[in-house]
Amino acid sequence: MDRVVEVVGSQVRPLLVVAIGGNALVGADGRLDVLTQRANARRAAAHLARLADANDLVVTHGNGPQVGVLAMQAAADPKVVAPPLDVLDAESVGLVGYLLVESLSRHVEPSRVVCVLTRVEVDGDDPAFGRPTKPVGPWFAPGHARQLASTHGWDFVEGPLGARRIVASPEPRRIVELGAIAMLARAGNLVVAGGGGGIPVVTRDGVLVGTEAVVDKDLTAALLAVALGADQLIVLTDVDAVYEDYGLPAARALGEVTPDVLRAMMFPAGSMGPKVDAVCRFVEQTGRQAAIGSLAEAEAVLVGGAGTRIVASH
Fold it and tell me: Is position 23 annotated as part of the catalytic site?
């Protein structure tokens, strides 16, 4: 696909793909009630909308906390057959996407803000289906987690706050609604797409069908940014930069860095690892720049005044 831009008079507006985490809408104490998520969506939208002043913008978002809670709610009534993960993905994407569209419409003409329910094709033989790694939902006491695992057949991993459910997270291969997203972005709309990493689907007998997984939103954001010909991929999170030796006394924030330097470092698989992988993929495949930084400093991250900027190796 040709590089997607919007031409306004003689001015070409850059296209940005910006990824924010599902945790961006969660309360500091882990709360996921709608009032908390709506308030956090409004704060996030204020930062995102400023990026849209001079750029076309496609926003992706995570859904790990939300889809995990929806799964808990669905499993609470033994008389009801709980929906599969792809359906819960769609529910969570609708929830978060609506809150973001509602909030962004406070800053951008509402008719120009649109959410695309996005399917992402994965390989049904991806080994990730046999090795769940994606954390979803809240933390549980280890005893409670063992009970849930026994009752529902769920997988858990233990961490500093207890135990958390993990699900399969296969590699995103193709964005099904790419053409629609491109047309909407080209027309100057602020597009929320690829939410939750996309709703995972596989091809069976020539038909796309949903599958039990949660795709990593950062890897989908990279795939989307490459396919759209984006000028920059920005991953906004709750830390101000990528750190070498994060959590240790010798921790050092990285300013400008190349993918080969980042790939030589080790980052946690459940948090910074996919973000680093995503920005490296984008830079390696396009030669353009990417950045990781704090949502609260989004404008500075865009221009290189904050966060970690990833540039092509020379």
Answer: yes
